[in-house]
From TrEMBL:
<keyword id="KW-0902">Two-component regulatory system</keyword>
<dbReference type="Pfam" id="PF00072">
    <property type="entry name" value="Response_reg"/>
</dbReference>
<dbReference type="GO" id="GO:0000156">
    <property type="term" value="F:phosphorelay response regulator activity"/>
</dbReference>
<feature type="modified residue" description="4-aspartylphosphate">
    <location>
        <position position="54"/>
    </location>
</feature>
<dbReference type="GO" id="GO:0000987">
    <property type="term" value="F:cis-regulatory region sequence-specific DNA binding"/>
</dbReference>
<comment type="function">
    <text>May play the central regulatory role in sporulation. It may be an element of the effector pathway responsible for the activation of sporulation genes in response to nutritional stress. Spo0A may act in concert with spo0H (a sigma factor) to control the expression of some genes that are critical to the sporulation process.</text>
</comment>
<keyword id="KW-0805">Transcription regulation</keyword>
<keyword id="KW-0963">Cytoplasm</keyword>
<keyword id="KW-0238">DNA-binding</keyword>
<feature type="DNA-binding region" description="OmpR/PhoB-type">
    <location>
        <begin position="131"/>
        <end position="230"/>
    </location>
</feature>
<dbReference type="InterPro" id="IPR001789">
    <property type="entry name" value="Sig_transdc_resp-reg_receiver"/>
</dbReference>
<feature type="domain" description="OmpR/PhoB-type">
    <location>
        <begin position="131"/>
        <end position="230"/>
    </location>
</feature>
<dbReference type="InterPro" id="IPR011006">
    <property type="entry name" value="CheY-like_superfamily"/>
</dbReference>
<protein>
    <recommendedName>
        <fullName>Stage 0 sporulation protein A homolog</fullName>
    </recommendedName>
</protein>
<dbReference type="Pfam" id="PF00486">
    <property type="entry name" value="Trans_reg_C"/>
</dbReference>
<feature type="domain" description="Response regulatory">
    <location>
        <begin position="5"/>
        <end position="118"/>
    </location>
</feature>
<dbReference type="InterPro" id="IPR036388">
    <property type="entry name" value="WH-like_DNA-bd_sf"/>
</dbReference>
Amino acid sequence: MNKPLILVVEDDRAIRNLITTTLEMQGYQYHTAGTGGASILEAVSHKPDIIILDLGLPDMDGVEIIKKIRSWSNVPIIVVSARSEDSDKISALDAGADDYLTKPFSVDELLARLRVALRRLRYDSAPNDADSVFQNGGLKIDYAAGCAYVDGREVHLTPIEYKLLCLLSKNVGKVLTHNFILKEIWGNALPDDTPSLRVFMATLRKKIEPVPSQPKYIQTHIGVGYRMLRFSDDTGEM
């Protein structure tokens, strides 16, 4: 597979140069943009494979850029931002971001996040098994189509949310530890990032659970991890 084209959206010249130098050393192709307007123009005209996006741009908030891009594209979007509050992460993830990296960040961690996005690109383009539909009560996952449904209605998930849902569904009834989930979704190179996992799980629950505070599909095992309950189990209280 050829190295993908990455769009770097960052108005801070020093950080932009750090990211592009790192990409160049790894053999990636890239374009850059320093404003929200320029980033949207680049995304439309060059159709990048991955977008690295700062939220604090001079002309437009990054969350608005995510929403605009999501109106026509599912390109993986990795947010790199100085905003570290959970509310900022949730806003970006709810808008459709796939990953969230807080400044200051290490080059190794950024490259690890890019590898995760690359695996998702390869996974999305790979053929799937014929037996590819998971049904659990009102929850249905069509692995071949990459779609999820609740009570017959399609649920629009970010790629990370979808990967989490698939991982839980393929281990239905089993408790998956935080470290296991982090390793499967984000790869071995990442440090423990349980707070980020909790944010992703919260946004996933908001989309698939009728009452997120009383989940019937995904159960929390405090301090341990998560388990997808079989719908026939009546143990769906957190």
